Each structure stands twice: as C-alpha cells, then as structure tokens.
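Practice problem: predict the structure.
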Amino acid sequence: MTAGGVPSESGAASRARPVPPFDPELGVALAALGDEAREQFTPDNLAARQERDAAARPRPSVRDLRADGLFEVDELRVPGASGDPDVTLVSARPAGLAGPLPLLYYMHGGGMIMGNAWSVLPQVLREWALPLGLAVVSVEYRLAPHARYPGPVEDCYAGFVRVAEHAAELGIDADRILIGGKSAGGGLAAALALLTRDRGGPTPIGQLLLCPMLDDRNTTFSSHQMTGVGIWDRTSNATAWQALLGDRYGASDLPPYAAPARATDLSELPRPTSRSGRPRPSGTRTWPTPTRSGRPAAKPNSTYGPGPSTASTPSRRPPPSARTPATPAPAGSGASSVRRIRLADRPVEHVTAAAAYGRPRGPHRRGRQGHGASAAWSTPAAARADPAGAGR
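Answer:
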C-alpha cells in the first residue's frame, strides 16, 4: 500500500498500461477545464475539494426544477435507519400525466464524496422523464467521509422502501420501479439491489448502472490505465473508497453492500443495463446479468456511450409477509419549510416549497391528496439489521 492509500504492485503487474485515447472533442473539453479540475483527490486535500465542489455545483430550487409548470416537483423527507437522520428525496414528474407512472429511483454521482440530489435533475427530467413519461425520485444520501458505509446505502434503502410502500399515494406504479445512478450512484444502485433482495424488501424491475463505482480494490486493468490521467484517476478513486470505508478499506471480508463487485451470489437480482464511455478506475466491471441459479448469464445487457437507456424484464416481488415489518420512528424537529402531515396514526413530514404554480389536476390525482404540499406520504421506518453483520 502506498502512502496515498493506493494498492502497490511490483514486477510485471506494476508496468504502465497503455492509455486509450480520448475522443478528440472530449480531449478539447478536458484541456479547457484546466489543471485545477485534473488535480488528484487525496486524503490531505479532500475537505478543501469538497468545499470547493459544494460552492460551485448547481443546486436548483424546486421552483427552478418545475420549469414554469412543465414538471411537478416536491421535496419529501422520510426517516432514516435507526439513529440516522431523515433522508430527503426530490420527487418529480411531467405535469398532467394521467395514471400511475413508472419510476426511476435515481442516485447521483460524485464518487461518494460529492454531488447532490438536485443538480442532476434538469438533465434527467428533460432527457428521460419528459419523453418517456417517467416519474423520478432523486436521493440526497449522505456523503463520505462524514457518513461512512453503511450510511449512504442505508439512506438509499430507507427512501426506496417508503417510495415503494406508498407508490399509490405518489401516483407511481409499484411494479415498474427502476433503480439507477451514475458513478457512485450506479454503485449504490447495485448495492441497493443486493440489499433489498437480502432483506426481502421491494423488488425493482431493473438496474440502470451508468459507469458504476463497484470495486474498492483498485486492481482492475483500467484503474492502472488511468493513473494520472483525466479528472478521476487511480489515486482519486482510492481516496474516495477510503473516505467511504474508513478502517475497512481493503478488508477481505467487506460486504457486497459496500462494494458490489465483492458479491458472489447474483441470484434473484433485477436485470441490469450498464453504460460506460471509457475505461474507469472507479471499479467499473462488467456487471453480470443474474439468473435464478445465481450463475451469470452468458452475456450482460450492456452498452457503451452517452444517451438514455432503460432496463427491462421485471423481477419477482416478494410477498409482504416475507418483508421485515416497519415500526414507527419519531419525526424530525421540523423547520419552517416543513409541513407535518399525518397518515393514519403515524406522523409524517413532507418538505415542500411554496404552492405549485398552475399545476394541472389530472386523473392521476384521484385517490390521493395530490403530489404537492398536502400529500399524505411515507411512513416511518424501523431499523433493519445488516444481513452481513457489518454493523456501523
């Protein structure tokens, strides 16, 4: 292990790998970013780099995301796992669509150390939700190193369970929920698929894994190819995994919910669709298409290059009796922007901005109070044991 935390090698394994060329247009764009964007992430500069990213990264407001009534957008707050803070979800859908919509439950990228649930939505909504008639829920999971494993994946699981359990109230088709994300979000989507399978939770219809961050070991061919190259190289990748895993970085018994490439049982998982534009040091591996036997199918469903993609082949949904029962947890303290709502005898919080402007009241609103400020929403969650015994 080197001083920077990157696994060291000797002999033939340490020889430099040939670096594949960037697309000429991308090369021009990378050069225009300047040296600051290509600076490696290290444990010493991580805090400063996170502050810089948080200040520079867009965080559009709910009003901005609504795009003059083109979309219905609200912020929802659900209880996290036992002892964890509430999780904020940004819920959006094209305005005026009738009937329950399929849902993309989306986790943003950023190497587990950067990003937010709001900045990804303008593109996701316009390129996917609007043309495909999708609802989208974007998860504001906690970032490392302030929240180490299993914090981020537990945040994603808490939100996923509440969305699935209350799909009808949100105008969502519970049998057509796709989980997905880019980079760190793709890794979290793969981890979420494993976790909800092993806990008997809701079953997604598929996984959309965009250049997913899957493997903490930093030993893939591509991780060596990209040493010192581009805006996310082998050193930056090791820094991010160390931030997430802490003392467990490099452990031989690391659970697959922390690094999905460690998984050995791929049975009963929803079919993945994977995209990657170039070799990546973040542990991107071909994510095998699972079969009921647990052995990968002959060829994964994967494509390469930019653009939207959807997964298919619905997976079997476990019966409610097989799921871990939820018990109420106390609601948060509540701020001025939080409206407290009660569903049956259980307290709920729904975070929203001012009243929506001119949102259509389509048929999909029947049977619920609407997707806006008055919507009765999710139920508190119980703590769910880590099936791998990982603990906190």
